[in-house]
Amino acid sequence: MGADWFLRATDGSESGASARAVDWSATPLGPPSTWPSTLRVAVELCFSTRFPVFVGWGPELTMIYNDGYRAMLGTEKHPGAMGAPASVVWAEIWAEISPLFDEVLSTGHPTWIEDMVLYMRRSGYREETAFTFSYSALKDEDGTVRGVLDIATETTGQVVDRRRLTTLGDLSAALQEVTDDLGVIGLRTIEVLGASRDVLRADLYVDTQAGLSLLATSHRGRPDVFAPPEDLVAALAGGEPLVVADDVVLAPLVAASGRKHGVLVLAASPLRPFDDAYRSYLLLLASVVARAIEVTVEHLREVDQLRTVSDTLQLAMTPEAPPAGWYTAYRPADGNLAVGGDWYDVVRLDEGRRGIIVGDCSGHGLEAAARMGPLRSAARALLLEEHGPAATLAALDRFVGSLPGAEFATVFCGVLDERTGSMVYAVAGHPPGLVVGRRGTVWLDGARGAPLAVGKTPRRETLTRLRPGDTLVLYTDGMIERRGESLRVSLDRLEQTARELFSGPTSDTPAEDLVEALVPGRARDDVAVVVYRHRAGGYGDQT
Length: 543
What we know:
Layout: H1 4-10, H2 14-21, H3 37-48, E1 53-57, E2 62-65, H4 67-70, H5 86-89, H6 94-107, E3 113-121, E4 126-139, E5 145-154, H7 156-174, H8 182-193, E6 199-208, E7 211-217, H9 229-238, E8 242-244, E9 248-254, E10 260-268, H10 276-317, E11 326-331, E12 342-350, E13 353-360, H11 366-384, H12 389-399, E14 410-417, E15 422-428, E16 433-437, E17 440-444, E18 448-449, E19 462-465, E20 471-475, H13 487-502, H14 510-518, E21 527-533
Parallel strand pairs: 15-18
Antiparallel strand pairs: 1-2, 1-5, 3-4, 4-5, 6-7, 6-10, 8-9, 9-10, 11-21, 12-13, 13-14, 14-15, 15-19, 16-17, 16-20, 20-21
Helix pairs in contact: 1-2, 1-3, 7-8, 7-10, 10-11, 11-12, 13-14
């Protein structure tokens, strides 16, 4: 009759039946009829709740647990764990959890642990798990700690889901920026996936004219063949994922348009069961990579088209080499294009006279170039019709009204007689020209007016004269402007650099030298430069 309490406490549950089947007299606890009241209360509590609970009692922390806790034992530890020492049941994680037990047993103070990651062997393989739990002291009648009450919940699913979402977000962020290099896509993909605990290995193949080619791999050392080539080809051809070796996904990289770009091979971690949720997650990673590759390929295709148009515009802008004594340079802000919104033109008017135009449409790239082309052609035609600089700018004011987006363009327009050095010029909101001579420098800041189509003030022009040996420098604002810097500082830097380059003998490429000195590397804005070296009697082509 002394054990009736135990029969009542364990009745109605599978774990209770397992507890009744144990020969407790063969354990350090002895038969249930002899158990102290504290242990009895703890056992009754254990089997009265569906929340996961286990009781560890005595020097060996002999285990008693309910159905909620049974699930944490996996497929192999139950029912052998019932009545067994905790150190034996949890041998593979004992180094991590025994200090927690010792703390409770020695101090009587409870513990609280959230999302502790433990690597268990509970279902036939080493498994990553996570738990939130509290160990509490079980004391006998005189207050001595005799055991531990463990109330726990497994949080593996939540921990893994959070981690996977983090990886997915990191991958999306890494591939969000549009690039024109598939190699960068491969590098960023492997950087993220190679650091993921849910991807044992990642191999990224892209489809080329020669077939599937390995772009990047997280495998260290020699990039061996991880997936059979025939399986890769089959996955790409079918457009559907294949699973090989039971835990390796071959995910074809198929864009929304249906275009196939390659295959991403993802090996699952052996520490987690390879279920439908895991498979879906790996395919979601592949879809992010597929989207990034699609954007990159489309960007490259658009750049090729833009480059073709840009090259055509560039050829139209420079139909002939500059005449003797004239030097030009051009550097668009978009490194993929040959032309942008800035332009220059040196127009032969008659023997010894040249029309000069340096202009800047707002923006850069092909859109700005599309506005620049008609504006440049109109300016050339007006100069050829012997319009003076002021009249040319006035006509361009009217012309931009039929060219949306060309408003606020800035222009320096001049007509130079190479025989005498005299030059008449007018300015529409453009940076001042510069003359570098033996006697110093002179800024061409006369006849200034508003940008095209801004205001109604009549255009004015002024006369200046170049001496033999003078160098005329005309440019667009991409040459001088710096973020956070005043215009005065920018102009001073240009003056100092031009004086150093042009006060004495110069190279055969003075315009390029000036651009390289002031705008090394890639330009933030389009840059156009015209340099003219004047000499007595004229420098130009007299044919």
